[in-house]
């Protein structure tokens, strides 16, 4: 969550004001860390992310996928190009999403 918060320009003011972002998130009960939580998952993981996501930068998704793969997790990642204009909330509109989900489930069931 810290990476996500710090990706916003305004959040950099917190550092300038000498506020500890991790401490603020913990005190606000908002210190959820997807990457750490997913590291213990033993089943295949599918992550979808839109390149034009304005809420969670695509670089953070790529970083998480890389970290999970280094951890040994079975991670599948599909990134939707920005020309589809799916942003943060509209991945469900991607025309190839049903096929992608079906392929992931088929492979996951076959290998497990």
Walk me through what this model shows.
The chain has a two-stranded parallel sheet. The chain has helices spanning 2-6, 12-16, 21-27, 34-38, 58-71, 97-111, and strands at residues 45-50, 75-80. It has 112 residues and is mainly alpha-helical. The chain is flat, with a radius of gyration of 16 Å. The chain has 6 helices and 2 strands; from the N terminus they run ααααβαβα.
Q: Can you tag this structure with a few keywords?
A:
about 45% helix, about 110 residues, mainly alpha, 2 domains, Rossmann fold
Give the topology, please.
Layout: H1 2-6, H2 12-16, H3 21-27, H4 34-38, E1 45-50, H5 58-71, E2 75-80, H6 97-111
Parallel strand pairs: 1-2
User: Average pLDDT across residues?
Assistant: 84
Roughly how many Å is the radius of gyration?
A: 16 Å
Helix content: 40-55%
The termini sit apart by: 31 Å
Uncertain ranges: none
Strand order of the largest sheet: 1-2
What's the tally of helices? 6
């Amino acid at each position: 969550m810290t990476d996500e918060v710090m990706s916003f320009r305004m959040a950099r003011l917190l550092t300038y004001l000498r506020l500890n972002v991790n401490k603020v998130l913990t005190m606000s009960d908002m210190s959820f860390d997807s990457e750490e939580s997913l590291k213990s998952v033993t089943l295949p993981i599918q992550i979808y992310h839109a390149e034009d996501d304005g809420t969670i930068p695509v670089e953070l998704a790529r970083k998480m996928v890389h970290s999970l793969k280094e951890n040994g997790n079975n991670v599948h990642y599909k990134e939707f190009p920005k020309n589809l204009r799916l942003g943060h909330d509209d991945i469900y509109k991607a025309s190839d999403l049903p096929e992608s989900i079906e392929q992931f489930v088929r492979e996951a069931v076959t290998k497990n």
